[in-house]
Specification:
alpha/beta, elongated
Length: 551
């Protein structure tokens, strides 16, 4: 399911456009300056490209782009995974607005979306090959990614292994560098821990020590207070318990007359029980509280040591047990960091895991390199480079990298007998364009993206080669939707559908529009592409012949 519809409002020099798109091979043509690539630019914007105010038509407050695509299982799954609606039978609709201040908003099926979400979804929808596609063939990372995509390689597990190995290497290097510093720090921690070990403070113990100290220091006062309280409550005929007993007797003798006295008697009975409980506790304090100068002295000594250590290490007494525990943990960590043998073992283990992940990647790349070399070489033969040869070379690295054990380089020999050289050193721009096109066609045939777009990738070629390019794109269009922006009539003649981009000037300024052409209008456009604005019987006849021979 492919690109179905495009709608533009106030985009650059397009006031309004509604366009239905179809399966097969479609070309976009038009005079120089007409804005042939404007449709592709709008598509890239609605697929998450960076937006700025320059895309808003002069005088308008904002522009709007809407693109609709057919749903397929992988896109439906992506929508569901990311919280967007995916109604059965309904197209996927992407919408983006940019205002005159450069602020952008986006929607996916009517729900607000981010530009990064549009970009992620774009990979499932469209594959765009730009007119400068050959430039990426000189960048090692782009070349490697192209081969990996061709080989269906997922290098994320390899990258994870490489990250783990680099962490192990860093830990080992740090330990070697810090050996002297670590030893000094280790000795300092051992000395501090040894000092506090003699005290062995426990969490919460300081509060208990203060409570015990208060009791021992004021033992005589506690005994005297307990005895005095007992005397007042239960020691003689005038004590509190005696008085309450008398009150109880008086109330109970009269409670048959005054029912309220029974309630009061119950209250006094409860108070009497509580006083008796208090007397029992006071008797225990009076008889069991001991004057123990030796225990008090030992407690004074422990608390003094505790206070001294807390002052020395600049913490409160309550924090000392926690500080002691932190030192022990830090020492254990230093011991682990200083264990070079263990770190060596960890590094070797991580390196082994990395190599086990990297070797299958290398083997897959080697196999894919041979296949891609042969396929692109074959494609080059039909693009005017007879005898030319394409080679994917893998160069072993001295040290593993996140992407594997080798760099990837593309080499090309322009004709039979010549030695393959790096693509970046091929002098001819036309050759570079053809090589890029050969790679694009070769890799696109194996892809899963439903829509392929070629934006003037055929620059620098012509004649029979141009016809071959058109046939290649038509062949691709039999299985997938292909759109090509072209200036070559030989390519345009091979299309199933033809879109004409025209610029119209009026008092309100210049404006571009896109129309579907066929029949005699298409013949006239091909004739213009063949011979210029002046149409002749010869150019028109040639245009008709091109269409007949290309269908």
């Amino acid at each position: 399911m492919s690109w179905q519809r495009m709608a533009l409002r106030d985009f650059v020099i397009v006031p309004s456009l509604d366009l239905d798109l179809h399966e097969g091979f479609t070309v976009l043509t038009g005079e120089t300056g007409a804005g042939k690539s404007i449709l592709i630019d709008a598509l890239q914007l609605v697929l998450g490209a960076r937006a700025d105010a320059s895309v808003v038509r002069e005088g308008a407050s904002r522009c709007e782009i809407v693109a609709e695509f057919g749903l397929r299982p992988s896109v439906t799954q992506w929508l569901q995974d990311n919280g967007f609606d995916a109604a059965p039978g309904e197209p996927l609709q992407l919408k983006r607005q940019v205002d005159s201040q450069g602020r952008s908003r986006a929607w996916i099926n009517g729900s607000a979306a981010t530009a990064s979400q549009l970009k992620a979804l774009a990979d499932e929808l469209v594959d765009i090959h730009g007119q400068h596609a050959w430039q990426s063939l000189t960048r090692p990372d782009a070349v490697r990614q192209l081969l990996d995509d061709y080989a269906r390689l997922d290098t994320r597990p390899l990258r994870s292994c490489w990250t783990a190995w680099r962490e192990a290497v860093r830990a080992l290097d740090d330990a070697r560098t810090r050996q002297n510093t670590l030893q000094a720090e280790r000795e300092r921690l051992q000395w501090q821990i040894g000092e506090v070990d003699k005290l062995a403070p426990l969490p919460g113990e300081w509060e208990d020590l203060n409570l015990q100290h208060g009791r021992l220091a004021h033992a005589q006062g506690l005994i005297d207070a307990a005895q005095l309280a007992l005397g007042a409550l239960d020691a003689d005929d005038d004590s509190a318990t005696t008085r309450i007993h008398r009150a109880l007797q008086a109330l109970r003798e009269q409670q048959h007359i005054e029912p309220r006295f029974a309630e009061l008697a119950n209250l006094l009975q409860t108070a009497l029980a509580q006083i008796e409980d208090a007397c029992h506790d006071l008797q225990h304090h009076a008889h069991h509280t001991e004057l123990d100068p030796t225990a008090l002295e030992a407690l004074d000594q422990r608390m003094g040591t505790w206070m001294s250590l807390a002052r020395r290490y600049r913490c409160s007494p309550e924090e000392l047990p926690q500080r002691w525990e932190q030192w022990k943990q830090a020492l254990a960590e230093l011991d682990r960091s200083a264990d070079l043998e263990a770190l060596h073992h960890a590094e070797r283990t991580a390196h082994k895991a990395l190599m086990e992940a990297a070797r299958p990647v290398s083997e897959t790349r080697l196999k894919a390199a041979r296949q891609l070399s042969a396929a692109v070489t074959e494609a080059m033969q039909g693009l005017g480079m007879a005898g030319g040869r394409f080679e994917v070379r893998l160069q072993a690295l001295d040290e593993p990298q996140a992407f594997g054990l080798e760099n990837v380089e593309f080499l090309v020999a322009g004709h039979a007998g010549s030695t393959p050289r790096p693509v970046g050193k091929v002098a001819s721009g036309g050759e570079l364009s053809r090589i890029a096109l050969a790679i694009a066609v070769t890799t696109s045939e194996l892809g899963q993206t439903p829509t392929l777009i070629f934006d003037e990738v055929d620059s620098g070629i012509g004649g029979a080669v141009a016809h071959t390019v058109g046939q290649l794109m038509r062949r691709l269009g039999s299985a997938r939707q292909v759109l090509a922006v072209t200036h070559l009539p030989q390519v345009a003649a091979c299309a199933h559908h033809h879109l004409l981009v025209e610029k119209v000037r009026s008092a309100g300024g210049a404006a571009s529009g896109v129309t579907v052409i066929d029949g005699e209008t298409r013949v006239q456009e091909l004739a213009r592409m063949l011979g210029g604005d002046r149409l002749t019987d010869t150019s028109l006849a040639h245009a008709r012949e091109l269409i007949c021979s290309s269908s």
